[in-house]
Amino acid sequence: MPELTAFGLWGLFLSAFISSTLAPGGSEAVLAYLVNQAEIPVDLLLLTATVGNTLGALTTWLLGLWAAKRYPLDNLEDEKRRKAVQTVRRFGVPILLLSWLPLVGDGFCFAAGWLRMSFVASLVAISLGKLGRYAAIVYLFS
Questions:
Q1: Given its phi and psi angles, is residue 71 left (phi above 0), alpha (psi -120 to 50 degrees) or beta?
Q2: Under a CB-based contact definition with an 8 Å cutoff, are residues 97 and 72 in contact?
Q3: Tens of pLDDT, residues 9-35
Q4: What total of structural domains would you count in the chain?
């Protein structure tokens, strides 16, 4: 049984990490399934999903920081990224509470890194947003 628990937690972590980078994923379905199985404590599932998803978002934040050093904003041709930078510039770090949103959340993280926003403030906002989203899923499926 401990092997299945570890497998489930690693699977959830990887799913959450991948779905929070620039690649699509479905960590919500994995979390909902594991909650319904009731074999792993819900608080451990919530922590695992939140940490994995937050680390994925921070990877995207770091990619934004790296890109800003190589390419100035004036040369940014991708309209979605340009719009995300403008939105994050307008609303600041609090917009990262919405980093869990499909389609635009990754762009917010990328833009925050691009704009060199505080890493610690970004970490806190991203974590709180991810925790809130996963807490809602746990609540709905438990």
A1: beta
A2: no
A3: 999 999 999 988 866 778 999 999 999
A4: 1
Burial class (CB in 10 A: 0-12, 13-18, 19+), 82: middle
Q: How many CB atoms lie under 10 A from the CB of residue 74?
A: 6
Which residue, 60, 50, 33, 54, is CA-closest to 135?
50
What angle do the packed helices 27-37 and 42-70 form, to 10 degrees?
170
Contact 107, 84 (CB under 8 A): yes
User: Residue 75: how many CA atoms within 13 Å on its side-chain side?
Assistant: 6
pLDDT classification of 52: cutoffs 50, 70, 90: very high
Residue 114, domain extent = 2-141
CA 8 to chain centre: 19
pLDDT single digits (tens) 82-139 = 788 889 999 999 999 999 998 889 999 999 999 999 999 999 999 999 999 999 999 9
Phi/psi-derived region of residue 92, left when phi > 0, alpha when psi is between -120 and 50, beta in every other case: left
DSSP state letter for 20: T
Structure tokens given for 117: 């926003």
